[in-house]
Structures are given as C-alpha cells and as structure tokens.
C-alpha cells in the first residue's frame, strides 16, 4: 500500500548522502520533499504540517553524532515522527473484569466489518478466549448469512435472530430491517453470559455513505450494550474520505479504537495513517486481505519501519 510513499521518502533521503553536518538549507530541502511525499500519499494536511515542523526542529537541533551520519539521523527522526502519528505504543484490547467483554464494530458498508468479525473471532479463539459473534447488521439479510459463513470458517459461535422469529421493522426512513438490532445485541449478551462466552463481537449495519439513521442505530446499540471497545473499521482504500468518515463516526457514535482494513490494496493510504492523529483514537488492528488470517495487531513501530524500509 505504501510503495509510492516509500520510494518518495527514499529519494528524499538520497540527497543527504555523503553530507557532513546539515545546513539549514539542506534541512529545508529534505523537509520540502518529505512534505510533498506525505501530501501525495494523502496524509491529511494538518498532520503533515506538524510532522514537518517537528522534523525540521529536531534536525536543526541534532547533535553531530559518531554513530549516525546526517542522512541516518534524518531517517531516524522521520521514523520517530511516523511512530508518533501512528500512536506510539501498541494499544491492546481492554478486556472487561466481569465477562463478557463486549466489542462493537462500526463503519461504512463495505469497510470490512463482517470480515473483521470473523478475523477477530479466530484471533480471540487463538488467544484462549471463547468468543461469540453477533449479527446485529439486520439491514441486509445477506449480512447475517455472511457472518454465519465467517463464523463457521473461524469455528466460532454466531448469535443471529432466527429467520422465522423476527418481524420486519419499519424504520423512519421507510426502509425495512429484519429485526431490532438493539434487541438482538442485548439478547446476545444475555446468551453469552448463560453459555459462558467471554467475548461478544457485535457486527453492526453500515451504509454506503454517512447517514443520520445509521449513526443513530449504532449509537443506540452502543448505549444499550455499553461496549468495552467500539472499533471503527475504515477501508484504507477510500483515500482522503477516510478522515471525514472517521470524524463523522467519532461525533455520531464515538469509538475507542480504529481498525485499518484493506491495507493490501494499492491505493495511497496516507489518509488512514492520519486517522489516529485526527481522531486521537488508537489504531488497534490492521487487515491485509480477505482471508481470516490476514489480520494482526497494529504496531506503530513496525508500520513505520515498513514504510521506511
Ligand atoms: P462490511 O460491509 O463492513 O461488513 O464489509 P465486508 O466484511 O462485507 O467486506 C467488504 C468486502 O471487502 C468483502 O468482499 C471482503 O472480502 C473485502 N475485505 C474485507 N477486508 C479486506 C482486506 O483487508 N483486504 C481486502 N483486499 N479485502 C477485504
């Protein structure tokens, strides 16, 4: 995903090779190239501004070092700044003291929530948990089936409303839903307590674009279930829209962490790199493919190294 950014940064650093102490003009020149590389990769403008200002300040203040030549020093500073905008520390799931831990997924339709539910289920099981996936995306009947499929693949229990058991629910927009997602989510938590599942992952409905009803539904589920984590899933391929979408979900639902999906794509991806800085919420997981094992805990330092390698 970050191939172009990677190339551009490498070429910016190339100009510093063989230099002794860097002059202000050298620093300005490399900072300018880094700035353009970040902007071209779709990193959000305010994030770039702060990034460049920090790089310049630290490069000017850098001591002459025995261990690192000036080019290496600048690379280290850029690395540190990348780690900083990506959140610094790895942030892990906070499990509830009294199970079940409730993890709610939110995001636009197509962001990768249902796939993520399967991935999380598989991962949690590997960590020794007993997860239950909950089909609270009742907007599309297919979503329930899709969750059952990924649940099966992951070998994880799926809680879904029975087909014959729910009536269609008329919504204010006139659209129909095959049940009440708030009720399903509540029932699922009660069922998880009864059946000793210690983590409940709630898949919620998305729309293709931000809309008030979607936000309200997600906020209602949040209110009713008091999740320990609300993970906002963002498709890294949507480019600059990622930042606006994240801000809208922050305001409409609020979330405790971000999952970057589709990092295997060839889009520019810089907007996804901005989401942490713009929302203040940590990136917790990254998805890199459709398969259930193409997923991992997000480590800011490893991502920074990957971009700079
Ligand atoms: P939802 O509408 O948010 O539940 O999104 P889905 O989980 O249905 O995912 C939408 C599409 O994206 C599906 O075709 C998934 O297979 C695909 N998908 C999900 N995550 C990834 C990923 O990390 N990489 C790629 N390449 N595709 C993904």
TrEMBL record:
Asked if Phosphoprotein is a keyword of the record, the answer is no
- EC code: 3.6.5.4
* Top-level enzyme category: hydrolase
Q: Where does GTP bind?
A: 107-114, 203-207, 261-264
Query: Which molecular-function annotation in GO is an example for this chain?
Result: GTPase activity
Q: Which GO terms describe its cellular component?
A: signal recognition particle
Where does the record say this protein resides?
A: Cytoplasm
Sorted alphabetically, which keywords does the UniProt record give?
Cytoplasm, GTP-binding, Hydrolase, Nucleotide-binding, Ribonucleoprotein, RNA-binding, Signal recognition particle
Q: Could you tell me what this protein does? A: Involved in targeting and insertion of nascent membrane proteins into the cytoplasmic membrane. Binds to the hydrophobic signal sequence of the ribosome-nascent chain (RNC) as it emerges from the ribosomes. The SRP-RNC complex is then targeted to the cytoplasmic membrane where it interacts with the SRP receptor FtsY.
Q: How does it assemble?
A: Part of the signal recognition particle protein translocation system, which is composed of SRP and FtsY.
Quoted from the entry, the domain comment is: Composed of three domains: the N-terminal N domain, which is responsible for interactions with the ribosome, the central G domain, which binds GTP, and the C-terminal M domain, which binds the RNA and the signal sequence of the RNC.
Family stated for the protein in its record: Belongs to the GTP-binding SRP family. SRP54 subfamily.
- What is the protein name given in its UniProt record? Signal recognition particle protein
Which organism is the protein's source?
Answer: Aeromicrobium flavum
Source taxonomy: Bacteria, Bacillati, Actinomycetota, Actinomycetes, Propionibacteriales
Range within the parent protein: 1 to 309 of 529
